[in-house]
Specification:
The complex is a heterodimer of chains A (117) and B (112). Chain A is globular, with a radius of gyration of 14 Å. Chain A is built from no helices and eleven strands. Chain A has 117 residues and is mainly β. In chain A, strand 5 and strand 6 form a beta hairpin. Chain B is an all-beta fold and 112 residues long. Chain B contains no helices and eleven strands. In chain B, a hairpin with a 6-residue loop joins strand 4 and strand 5. The mean pLDDT of chain B is 94. The chains are: A mainly beta (117), B mainly beta (112). At the A-B interface, strand 4, strand 5, strand 9 and strand 10 of A face strand 4, strand 5 and strand 10 of B.
């Protein structure tokens, strides 16, 4: 059974603080993703990584950075938290979408509700 | 530029009736689509998917229909149950990196 875990379920930080959100998956997946979910906007991709030390910007990378030093771990960093980064953050992973018959399904963690005051 | 759109933010149906959730896309290169279900304070969970070589895929109470010419897909839930009340997201596979593009979501409420 695939498991994606996130370091915190709820987090409250002050404006200007540096924030680390950690994500770990246990399925040896190549791809990992960070999204934020806001009402009416769906899931928006912040960054993704298709291999260790590789990263690609998603649709809304501004104000965020990521780190992937090990295959199973993908970290999202808010360099200087701002109130407009208050959101639900979701991590996901999937394997290589190459084989015929692959489901391409992404497996999600439980999410981190971040509040920046 | 929203490539995957769910134009209905919410839907309310009676228990036992059919729920139909709709999704439109703009990129004709998309060839694989997925539906996810999300409860509050939980991550989304995969529900059902469809490849563009098919026009229908069924799994129990859930059926996804794909109309490629209209760039439209729909999720049918029959019969609807109160436990189906959740936010439903449709998603399209973009390229071959495993990246998904999600719609805005539709909140389904099934009333007992």
């Amino acid at each position: 059974d695939v498991k994606v875990t996130q370091s915190s379920r709820y987090l409250v930080k002050r404006t200007g603080e540096k924030v680390f959100l950690e994500c770990v998956q246990d399925m040896d997946h190549e791809n990992m993703f960070w999204y934020r979910q806001d009402p009416g906007l769906g899931l928006r991709l912040i960054y993704f990584s298709y291999d260790v030390k590789m990263k690609e910007k998603g649709d809304i990378p501004e104000g965020y950075s990521v780190s992937r030093e090990k295959k199973e771990r993908f970290s999202l960093i808010l360099e200087s938290a701002s109130t407009n980064q208050t959101s639900m953050y979701l991590c996901a992973s999937n394997g290589l979408a190459l084989a015929s018959g692959s489901s391409y399904e992404q497996y999600f963690g439980p999410g981190t509700r971040l509040t920046v005051t | 530029d929203q490539q995957v759109k769910q134009n209905s933010p919410s839907l309310s149906v009676q228990e036992g009736r059919i729920s139909i959730l709709n999704c439109d896309y703009t990129n004709s290169m998309f060839d694989y689509f997925l539906w996810y279900k999300k409860y509050p304070a939980e991550g989304p969970t995969f529900l059902i998917s469809i490849s563009s070589i098919k026009d229908k895929n069924e799994d129990g109470r859930f059926t996804v229909f794909l109309n490629k010419s209209a760039k439209h897909l729909s999720l049918h839930i029959v019969p609807s149950q109160p436990g189906d009340s959740a936010v439903y997201f449709c998603a399209a596979l973009s390229g071959n990196t495993g990246k998904l593009i999600f719609g805005q979501g539709t909140t389904l409420q099934v009333k007992p």
